[in-house]
Amino acid sequence: MATGARGHARALLTLGLPLVGSNVAQIMMAMADTLMLGWYDVTALAASTLAVSLWILLFLLGAGFSNAVMTLVAAALEEDDAVTVRRVTRMGLWLSLLFALPCLPLFWWSEPLFLAMGQEPDVAALAQDYLRIHGFSMFPAMAIMALRAILTATEHTRIILWGTIVAALLNAGLNWVLIFGNLGFPELGIRGAAIATLILQIAGALLFAVYALVRMPEYDLFTRLWKPDWPIFARVFRLGVPIGLTTLAEAGLFNVSAVMMGWIGKVPLAAHGIVMELTSMAFMIHLGFSQAATVRAGRAYGRRDEAQLRSGATVALAITGGLVAISMCLFLLLPAPLVGLFVDPDDPLRDQILATGVTLLAVAALFQAADAAQVMTVGLLRGVQDTSVPMVIAIVTYWGIGLPAGYLFAFTFGMGAIGVWLGMALGLMSAAVALSWRFWRNTRRFATRPLVA
Predict the structure, then answer these.
(1) What is the per-residue DSSP string for 375-444?
(2) How much is the average pLDDT of 11-21?
(3) Are residue 254 and residue 282 in the same domain, yes or no?
């Protein structure tokens, strides 16, 4: 057990750095899809963007169950309770895979939904074609998340890092072959991208399952996998649903903000997309350490150790604070070069996009601290199995404060694109304050309440 600031920092970095690397690799995989489909066909790129946005929203909701697995396993490990580790993992897999079932009809008949959202018919039809293949990857993707949770909680994070890096490289290669029809393969366009993703998701699920069997035999994770365990099923469900809804509320804030940017114009929307790519990369770093903090807080919770819970949380916030300072400096000192990486030098709208992007990146720099604080604190709260109140906080701050404020600033007060981002900043700051107050005010209660079996 790590104690003291150095011990906490060492443990957090050892656990968190591979998670950060895997999160960044996932972002790079998505960027590769965007780049290659953009090179192939603009309509295909638009369709994939539309389709993936729907897939991701459902994925984030379902991933709440895997986060519950991570939290419950971390606490069980402190009691040397291998039976509970196995029970939680099995029921986490059950819930994750069951969640994917009702998603399939929505993906299969998604064209009417996209048309009702006002999308162009050819884009809506192509997005449905994509989802009729990519939709099946929800099953292995959910399995990967549940297995990744047990691997993270047991601190087997290097396999997550290297597995994700290899997947990112293979994804680029498969896209090149299947989208464009290279090496004698048929040219499949957007369908090729979907097939590549499905293949790699299945391979990833098999890799993590085999690794868990070989490297963690003491937990016997897949014994009687078919047998229901209703008390644990209910526990993972009760903990996982609020986590999924919390993540969905935050993702929804950014998705609806993009819609509002589209109302303003294509230049602000393009600049918004670029700045979102940059802030997402920074966010993934904080998310990796937040996941590590969840495990560390869960261990302290399992020991009923209030002092270690508080000191570990302080070190986690200090580390993420140092990373915030770096990202703020980059965003404020090098805004034009960063935004310019994403814009063709010969694009006639380049100067307009750069001007808007530089302004938005300055606002993004201002709320880096709030964004980092909220994701870290929500990770700590998950570690002590507090999920329902954070869900309410997320819904109120993002949808009750952030989005209305963004609309008022942008359209009522005539601030345009910067108004949308100021609204998002206000929502994130409100969430950070409320979640921080929730955690620090209740650490003693969290650390002394009984574990729920």
Answers:
(1) HHHHHHHHHTT--HHHHHHHIIIIIIIIHHHHHIIIIIS--THHHHHHHHHHHHHHHHHHHHHHHHHTHH
(2) 85
(3) yes
